[in-house]
Amino acid sequence: MSVRLKLTLSYAGFLMIAGALLMGVVWVFLLRYVPDQLELRLGSRLHTGVFPVRSNLLREFAPRAAVALAGLLAFGLAGGWWLAGRMLAPLTRITEATRTAAGGSLSHRIALEGRNDEFRELADAFDAMLGRLEAHVAEQGRFAANVSHELRTPLATTKTLLEVARSDPERSTPLLIEQLEAMNGRAIDLTEAMLLLSRAERRSFAREAVDLSLLAEQAVETYLPMAEERGIQLTSSGEAAPTIGSRALLLQLATNLVHNAIVHNQSSGGRVRIETGASEDLVTLTVENTGAELAPGLVATLTEPFQRGAGRVRGHDSGVGLGLAIVASVAEAHDGLLTIAARDGGGMRVVVQLPARGRGAVS
User: How far apart are CA 166 and CA 220, in angstroms?
Assistant: First the structure.
C-alpha cells in the first residue's frame, strides 16, 4: 500500500474508533438513566406498568448508530485521502527532485514554500546537498581538465624530443637524456601531488600527536639552501604548537608554504618569515613573504588547482601548481582553517589554524 493509502486508513480507523467510543458512552449513559418501567399519573390516579423502554431504545438507537458510523467511515476515508494528499505533496516534490538529480541534473532545486516544518527542513537540506554536489562535480571537472592539460605538456614534450632525436642521429645524447629526465620528473611530481591531494581529501590517514613548530623548522631547514641561493632572508620563530594529525601531511603543508613563499618572491632581497603560535584551542602557522602585489580577487583563487598569481610563471622549481591546493585540503582534512591575504607593498600572508592537542593527549 502507498503511504497515502496507509495514512487514509489510519485517519479513518482513528475516526471510527473515536465514533464508536462516543456511541458507547452515549449508550451507557442512556442505559443508566433510562428506567425499566415508566410510571404514568393521570389526574389523581397513578397508573403503574412495565413498558419495554430499553428494548425500544435498543431497537431505535442501534440502526441509527450504525448509519452514523457508516457515514463517519465514509467521511473519514474521503477526508483522510484529501488530508494525506495535502500533507504528502511536499514529499512528492522532493521525490521528483531526487529522480531529476539521479538523472544527472544537479541544477534543479525544490525551493519549497510554506511553513518551516519538517518537510521544509528536509527540502532545504536536500537543496543544500544538491548545491554542494553541483559545486563538487564542477570542481572535479575543472580539476580533471587541468590535470589532463598539465600531464599532456610533459608527455607531448617527451614525444617531441624523441621524434627530434630519431630524425637527428647526431643530436647530443646526454642533453636528450637530461631533457627527458626533467620531463619525466615533472610528470612524476604531478602524479605524486595528485595522489597526496586525493589522500588529504579522503582523510585516509592515521592521526598522531605532532608539533607544528618542529615541522615548520624542518621545512625551513629543507629550503634554506634555496633561499640563500636566491638571496632571500628566511627567518622562523614562535612557540610549540601541539596538534593531532598526520605527520606526513602536515609536513607537506609546511614545506609547500615555505617553498611557495621562496619561489614566488622578489628576485633578490626578498624576505620570508615563518611563525608558529598556540592558544588553548588553536595552533597557528603563519608564513609571510615579499613579492609582487596581488589583487584580492586573485588571492581568493590561489587555492584552486593549477592557479598562479600575477607574475607567477612556471619555472623549473615552481612546482606543479598544486602547492596551495594541497595546503587547503590538508588543513580542511585536519578540521583547520586556511586564510590567505595580500600584503601591503606586495607578497602575501598565509595563516593555517588547526585544533590544539588536548591536555590529555599523549605527547
Answer: 44
- Please determine, for residue 208, whether its predicted confidence score (pLDDT) is greater than 60: yes
| Beta strands across the sheet bearing 337-342 | 233-238, 271-278, 282-289, 348-355, 337-342
What is the set of domains in the chain, with CATH numbers?
A: 3-38+49-105 (no CATH), 121-202 (1.10.287.130), 208-355 (3.30.565.10)
Helix/strand/coil for 212: helix
Three-class SS of residue 264?
Answer: coil
Q: Where are the beta strands (DSSP E) in the chain?
A: 38-42, 45-49, 208-211, 233-238, 242-245, 271-278, 282-289, 337-342, 348-355
Read off the pLDDT of residues 2-34 as tens digits, 9 standing for 90 and up: 777 887 888 888 888 888 888 888 777 776 666
The pLDDT of residue 360: 38
CA separation for the pair 122, 61 (Å, rounded): 49
pTM for the model stands at 0.58
